Amino acid sequence: MKSFFCALCGLLCCLVLPARAGTLPPREQAIERTLAAMTLPEKVGQMTLLTFNTVAQGTLPFGTKEPHRLDPERLWAAIGEHHVGAIFNTGLHALTLPEWRSVVTGIEAAAARTRLKIPVLYGIDAVHGMSYACGATLFPQQIGLAATWDPGLVGEIARATAYEARAAFIPLVFAPSVDLGRNPVHSRFYETFGEDTLLASRLGAAMVRGFQGNNLANPYRVAATLKHFVGYTMPVTGKDRTPAAVPEVVLQENFIPPFRAGIEAGAAAVMLANCELNGVPVHADRHLITDVLKNSLGFRGVVMSDWGSVYSLSDSHHVARDRREAVKLAVNAGLDLAMVPFDLDFTTLLVDLVKKGEVPMARIDDAVRRVLGLKYDLGLLTGPPPNAGDYPDFGSQRFADLNRRAARASLTLLKNEKSVLPLPKTARVLVTGFGADSMAALNGGWTYTWRGQDTDRYAADKSTILKAIAAKLGPARVEHVAATYDEPADLGREVAAARRADAVVLCLGEEPYAENFGNIDDLSLPESQTALARALAATGKPVILVLTEGRPRIIRPFVDQMAAVLLAYLPGNEGGNAIADVLFGDAGPEGRLPFTYPRGPNGLGTYDHKISEGYAQDPEFPFGAGLSYSRFRYSGLALDKAQVTATDVLTVSVAVRNDGRRPATETVQLYVSDLVASIPPPVKRLRGFRKVALAPGEQARVSFSLPIKDLAFMDRNGTPILEPGEFEVAVGGLHRKFVVR
Ligand code: BGC
Q1: Superfamily the domain 397-616 falls into
Q2: Pick the CATH number of 2-385 from 1.10.10.1020, 3.40.605.10, 1.10.760.10, 3.20.20.300
């Protein structure tokens, strides 16, 4: 050991330095120096992630609705006595920007009084914008962003979110979710990028890059967390946090690639799935965490647990006798940072496990190196403290404009009989349905509060669908009849109002929910919503159905009677304005379905189903569907080679022409089918997509480079296999075959 001047951690850690540290790059030197100075309890503290309530005033565990203030005693118990290195979350309400700054600064001030002065890492669920800050820009939820099929736009949104999180002095976000949305019953469907592997991979990677840029120490960027590794979105029962089942080949083929893409984009952290996958609780699965995630995917960042998931190993999975054994299983499996989230016993238990030789010191050191590395990369160890004056754009018009653009791009027109849309601005409309005048219905969960139930209070200055339409047409042309989510509507009033109108904008869908609060037994909409839709349609007036929903609720009982269907997903705080823009022709609908919209509650399936499932597929709307206010014609699909080998890149090109009378944007989708393979091939897979904006009469030639090696499929060990044989390309209804030699 040599003594060494340490600019990072103050005097004490200057006293010790392993000899090898001098030969390392500066980042690793800093980490090794700090690590060498740490006691075991200090190391274990760095592996602990506590929820905010634990260090705040209020009744534990869940706190109060009072404005949050730090509790100096609780804070010191956590940081001073248990050496806790990371805090996350909010309490039961959103904080103002000054409140956030004072919370984070107060926590850092406590950290500065500890022996090693290692800053605390603050993390937050910024899943569609900086969720828990008053006045923040709340964008479409991920499922809506997926419908934009636009990685550039998704990157811009992540960048704006990073800006607003850093404005609150928060450097770590728990987003994006790159687990696939292939089971629409699951309450977290809306947090995904939908069912397709390529779309989720491209958008997830774009989001990671948008959050992180190329330098995490940049005061306008944050560290991203890929979640939830892996398969959590596939519960067998459909209920949240229940055992998931994903065949090994499907895991390798579909579920792992978006995580790989996020890791290659540089994601700083990964959160584990809080469920059992294929019979093993993920938090205890050494194969999945260490062999697959850390070794095979080469993930070098921080692996964190989900909420309370370490203790779930004993408390709900019953694979550990007690919490001590649960900690042992998780840490030995490869966990680096435990979201405990209230419990300081974690540190005591882990110290004891190390002392008794049940958790190796090398495992602790690996975890602490990863956590310190993240703190170093974020500039927490070396950089200047954040400066409140640097964030004038928080909640700005600039971000609201981006938000409105994103919401417009997500809106997906699924039906437009007799081109009823766009409606003329001279129309008199009835705007009704439970979502008509609700900011909560536009945003869903993770909005100011976890479940999003107080959104109308926080976003009182924003436009609901009703307000936005009234602003566009003038209030005299707009009538509103209020309806609730699941109570019988006043059909007499509704019908009378519909008769007075030229058209009805009927806003149906879901109330906000998060996690287990969104568990359902049936994808059908409440009976009252169906009854309202039918009663309005029976008036003979055109009914425009606008759906604000986080997952595809069944509309079969009345969809044939609807003149138009606009799927808005959960479009965020500018959703009302964007919907009004599209309904009245100030913008064209651009979104394309990022999932298969089922026709019946049990009619679940994905577009890339097996050929043997084909007879069972009869969706309401297929994956990739979406109309515009124009018409596109495809022609001249061409491949540059008829025969290829594994090392070739095939060029596929096609002409697209706007045959309609309005400018419009088309999303060109390239699908490839492997006609025969030794593992049953899917009917087709999305292999490329590109958006093209075309003026009326304009034609563009769009071309894709398709590396043939990317057409390989995975075997159950994750080994890519490319078999010779015939393949078929499909774009816009045109088909061409080629042969792999
Ligand atoms: C959720 C995570 C979230 C965490 C922190 C958990 O219940 O599953 O997605 O990041 O809470 O709020």
Answers
A1: Glycoside hydrolase family 3 C-terminal domain (3.40.50.1700)
A2: 3.20.20.300
Q: What is the pLDDT of residue 703?
A: 98
Question: Can you give the pLDDT at residue 614?
Answer: 78
Question: Which of these, 127, 232, 106, lies nearest to 176 by C-alpha position?
Answer: 127
For residue 250, the model assigns a pLDDT of 96
Structure confidence at residue 5 (pLDDT): 34
Q: Whose CA is nearest to atom 2 of ligand 1?
A: 306
Q: What angle do CA 475, 481, 482 make, to 5 degrees?
A: 115
For position 166, what pLDDT does the model report?
Answer: 98
Q: What's the confidence (pLDDT) of residue 65? A: 66
Task: Name the CATH topology of 632-740.
Answer: Immunoglobulin-like (2.60.40)
| CA 306 / ligand 1 centre spacing (Å) | 6
Q: Residue 309: its pLDDT value, please?
A: 98
Nearest CA to ligand 1 atom 6: 307
Give pLDDT < 50 ranges for the chain: 1-17
Q: Can you give the pLDDT at residue 18? A: 52
Assess contact for 340 and 357: CB atoms under 8 A. Answer: no
pLDDT given at position 47: 98
Contact call for residues 89 and 70 (beta carbons, < 8 A)? no
Tokens of 451: 């479940």
pLDDT of residue 3: 37
CB 668 within 8 A of CB 692: yes
Placement of tokens 């095939």 in the chain? 650
| Cα 462 versus chain centre, distance | 23
DSSP code string of 83-125: ---EEE---SS-B-HHHHHHHHHHHHHHHHTSSS-PPPEEEE-
**Active-site residue, selected from the candidate residues 306, 454, 456, 674:** 306
Ligand 1 pocket mutation, candidates 306, 339, 519, criterion most atoms within 8 A of CB: 306
Read off the amino acid at residue 64: T
Q: Is 306 a catalytic residue?
A: yes
The helix, strand and coil proportions of the chain, stated in percent and rounded to the nearest 5, come to: 35, 20, 45
Residue 209 C-alpha to ligand 1 middle, in angstroms?
22
pLDDT at 60: 74
Domain ranges, ordered by start, for the chain? 2-385, 397-616, 632-740
Which residue type occupies 22?
G
**In terms of Cα–Cα distance, which of 684, 648, 687, 645 is closest to 670?**
687
| Residues across the chain | 741
Minimal-distance CA residue to ligand 1 atom 7? 307
Atom from ligand 1 closest to the CA of residue 191: 9
**Strands 713-714, 720-721: pairing kind:** antiparallel
Centre of ligand 1 to C-alpha 460, Å, is 26
Residue 340 CA, ligand 1 centroid: distance in Å: 11
How large is the angle between the packed helices 527-537 and 491-500, nearest 10 degrees? Answer: 30
CA 236–ligand 1 middle distance (angstroms):
20
- What pLDDT is recorded for position 248? 94
Q: Which pLDDT belongs to residue 10?
A: 39
Residue whose CA is closest, atom 11 of ligand 1? Answer: 307
Max Cα distance, the chain (Å): 87
Whole-structure pTM value = 0.96
Best residue among 190, 230, 307 to mutate for probing ligand 1's pocket (most ligand atoms within 8 Å of CB) is: 307
**Which residues does ligand 1 sit against, CB inside 6 Å?**
89, 125, 174, 227, 274, 306-307, 515
